Amino acid sequence: xxxxxxxxxxxxxxxxxxxxxxxxxxxxxxxxxxxxxxxxxxxxxxxxxxxxxxxxxxxxxxxxxxxxxxxxxxxxxxxxxxxxxxxxxxxxxxxxxxxxxxxxxxxxxxxxxxxxxxxxxxxxxxxxxxxxxxxxxxxxxxxxxxxxxxxxxxxxxxxxxxxxxxxxxxxxxxxxxxxxxxxxxxxxxxxxxxxxxxxxxxxxxxxxxxxxxxxxxxxxxxxxxxxxxxxxxxxxxxxxxxxxxxxxxxxxxxxxxxxxxxxxxxxxxxxxxxxxxxxxxxxxxxxxxxxxxxxxxxxxxxxxxxxxxxxxxxxxxxxxxxxxxxxxxxx
Amino acid sequence: xxxxxxxxxxxxxxxxxxxxxxxxxxxxxxxxxxxxxxxxxxxxxxxxxxxxxxxxxxxxxxxxxxxxxxxxxxxxxxxxxxxxxxxxxxxxxxxxxxxxxxxxxxxxxxxxxxxxxxxxxxxxxxxxxxxxxxxxxxxxxxxxxxxxxxxxxxxxxxxxxxxxxxxxxxxxxxxxxxxxxxxxxxxxxxxxxxxxxxxxxxxxxxxxxxxxxxxxxxxxxxxxxxxxxxxxxxxxxxxxxxxxxxxxxxxxxxxxxxxxxxxxxxxxxxxxxxxxxxxxxxxxxxxxxxxxxxxxxxxxxxxxxx
Lengths: 331, 306
Known about the structure:
Number of helices of chain B: 12
Largest interface: A-B, 60 and 53 residues
Oligomer: heterodimer
Helix content of chain B: 55-70%
Structural class of chain B: mainly alpha
Strand content of chain A: under 5%
Order of helices and strands of chain A: HHHHHHHHHHHHHHH
């Protein structure tokens, strides 16, 4: 199939491919790693100064109704009475040891608390991506392979409308219909598998329109390529052409979108978790931000940054392995 | 715009034969051939209607959005004097939704203007500069795109505080990366156009070249990005208020209204449906304008044969 995708230049012998692939993967790894270091440095520095700029950090850390003695104690404990440069040095040192301190509210290790919440977010996002793909691939391919017709126009308009509904509004509407009016599904997490559909549907409604658009556009584009024309001229049926030639290439575009949309997905997941009381990273971040629990905020943002990095890296590697054209271009 | 330049021979030889085909794909997003202008028209009409209603609302002799009346709590839509009903404190839902429109449109446009300005500046600067500066700028754009901006916004707003300007500036400062990336890619192409090359070779200063030749050419792209950014900013603003991190509590905004409505979904669904409808209309208007502008600039591109 890969050979069909690049008929004109498919000259690389299979023997060279693995070494080339390894090199390409290595390159992707190095690029992404430098990006991760830069990202973490920027994010943590921003957080460091944000806390200090917000006024008296000791007062923030000590909590709202702290006595002056407590505030002074906190100041000494966190080293807030030392020069800013020293504080920053200490901060970076702690960061390198992954020491984010303890939550201001229950005294537990911040990083451990955050890591405890990560699976819930990943579970929700992964299920949503899966459902979205199952919905978007058939619809998107169908739209892209068709060139006109009333049904196609209706679907197109529908997609535009769904795309206009913000994720958290979708969530509220779903609760209104399924939990309040029909009473068939619970509106908050924690009651087994029945609490899964609504949050996942919320995220799906957010992902599916974009996926369909990209799939339809890239399928349409592939359908105009020479190799598709050749296949048609050779007597291949419409279904075969779409399934064997158009879809694999179009799916590449979708994978790329999923990678680049992961950041947006995390934003969406945050609001979804808040609406459905889903115990994930997003809810943790919102709660710790509202209570100004800074060690927890720092740890959460840090973990989210690493997650984004890992997903992007995985996408890069998948691309290098799946799409031979990339390797050739880079080499 | 580009005269038949030195295009590499090869696949392009067939171009005349395939040329009409691209239209097929581009019809997606619009209805038919005329889909662009229609979409744009509907979007602009919706947007104008919304802006007018929001601006005229204070003159309409509606109930005061802040006026509480505990004897008329949770009145359903259609109650005399309260077209869309009242909320849990007896405040008029319609006038609160209209006040929310002023808030959302204000923050959306402020944040969008700031974000687009930063995005265009950085995008053009990244494409125009050479060596290390370009590396730094493109890396910054990549990093900005790969990080969930709502996470940044939440954290910053929590520390900086609530309120119109805090929210508008924070959102504006975090929303630029997608704009910058698109502008960067487009400017890289423009850099090599003949008329830009000519200006550069004649020794026109970089600033003038950018101002006179590059920015005008970027306009269609920037307009589209502005429309989508505007929609995104309104969603983010109401999302943050919904989380209790945006507008001050009690302020009549869509996000606050939605947040308050959560406790009354069973008894007073209109408290949720009214602001939800308002957000959807506003976002839809901005998206339709974006789609319409995209279709228009594509058609222009096809007409000019580029």
